[in-house]
């Protein structure tokens, strides 16, 4: 039979790599919690209209990257979420979450975009994200940026290895409209120098022309009117407050007035954290303020700010410059032999787990030699062995697997009741010895 393989651009996450992910997930969640963010989980499938209205009809994501389909059973138009901000906003409105005041929420999960797969760009990828809803103050934008800075530190990234923060302000709607008109005037006057894509965008979303990577248009683009010259007093004050908080906290940043982001819901603060260690897909994190989205999705007006980190890119960066200790595996591998040894081994393994140890029990019959080989390969600190004699006496042999000299491995025979305590001591001795 032909074998069935996974979908292009959608990856399996396998051991031992999965233990790295678990470890990073744990550290990221701890940092988010330390800033008062509570977890939210929303479905992977949402009504297509949510993303069209939320992200914007004339964006790359909505125009060409969404996995949308008609539910064959009831005809509903559905989409695999390409991002999670619109869905979190939907959930907050639907469940009246902002009734009691603002909310800080975080999430982790898969997102889906039909892009051309390459290193750092996948069709199913994962994001850690946060959304602070109901907060309008620049202190919240700043706090999120400080939280990301702390996260880099927690993950062991030296200052030199951390992604660099690029910051811009998109102002408010009237400022953007004035800028948009200035762009249309500017690019219309040079229409023959625009490529086909940009000519089309001139009508639909002239701001995206600034994103064009076409080298023939670089000079034209660099001379285009800048949004920063259209910002009013309030927008400038907001931006200044964010910049000042970063400066006080010692977080380096660069102003980038070409930073526009690929989703339409932003205003005022937008930012990206970019590294040059990952090749073309160097944006590890992106976000900003979206003060009108809640109202636009049918809720009571509530200003908001958030960001998302691409997990694959973050882990690729860590592997490059600051390898992560994987989440711990098992402490003990339980080997057993003799006639019908499995039921007693099951019981012995449970006894060890009740005493706080992580135990992998050998399954099936095999020679003790092959079981010890498995024990070694499992990464466990100890092997616990139960043969006929131990079983009858209600004991087990515990053997250190990572001692200073394996040929003189320490081993002890202990009762089930004492096994946990002895095992923990032996693990501690090995840890001290190995410096782990
Ligand atoms: P985004 O910039 O579209 O923003 O995505 C955030 C991050 O997800 C990117 O910086 C990148 O690291 C990662 N990412 C995006 N597409 C891919 C892909 N195809 N493969 C691998 N990684 C990818 C958002 O999604 C907004 N919802 C962020 C936000 C939250 N803004 C406010 N709140």
What descriptive keywords fit this protein?
436 residues, alpha+beta, BirA Bifunctional Protein, domain 2, Rossmann fold, 2 domains, 8-stranded mixed beta sheet, 5-stranded mixed beta sheet, 16 strands, 39% helix, elongated, binds histidyl-adenosine monophosphate
- Which blocks of ≥5 consecutive residues have pLDDT under 50? none
| Ends apart, CA distance between termini | 47 Å
- CATH class category label of the largest domain: Alpha Beta
User: Which distinct ligands sit in these coordinates?
Assistant: histidyl-adenosine monophosphate
Give the name of the CATH superfamily of the largest domain: Bira Bifunctional Protein, Domain 2
What is the spatial order of strands in the main beta sheet? 1-5-6-11-10-9-7-8
What is the arithmetic mean of pLDDT? Answer: 95
CATH architecture of the largest domain: 2-Layer Sandwich
Strand content: 15-25%
* SS content category: alpha+beta
Q: Measured on Cα atoms, how large is the radius of gyration?
A: 28 Å
Overall 3D shape: elongated
- What is the β-strand count? 16
* Number of distinct helices: 15
CATH fold call of the largest domain:
BirA Bifunctional Protein, domain 2
Could you give a short description of this structure?
The chain has 436 residues and is of the alpha+beta class.
Task: Walk me through the structure.
This protein has helices at residues 17-34, 48-55, 60-65, 85-94, 138-154, 173-188, 196-204, 218-222, 233-249, 293-296, 311-321, 342-354, 368-377, 388-393, 416-434; strands at residues 38-39, 45-47, 67-70, 77-80, 103-112, 124-133, 164-169, 253-255, 267-274, 283-289, 304-310, 332-336, 359-361, 382-386, 395-400, 411-415. With 436 residues, it is α+β, with helices and mostly antiparallel strands. It has 2 domains: 17-171 and 231-321, Bira Bifunctional Protein, Domain 2 (BirA Bifunctional Protein, domain 2, 2-Layer Sandwich), CATH 3.30.930.10; 332-434, Anticodon-binding domain (Rossmann fold, 3-Layer(aba) Sandwich). The strands form 3 sheets. Strands 1-5-6-11-10-9-7-8 form an 8-stranded mixed sheet, with helices on both faces. Strands 13-12-14-15-16 form a 5-stranded mixed sheet, sandwiched between helices. The longest helix is centred in the C-terminal third of the chain and has 19 residues, at 416-434. The two termini are 47 Å apart. Residues 83-85, 113, 115, 120-122, 125, 127, 129, 131, 262-263, 283-288, 290, 306-308, 310, 312-313 line the site of histidyl-adenosine monophosphate.
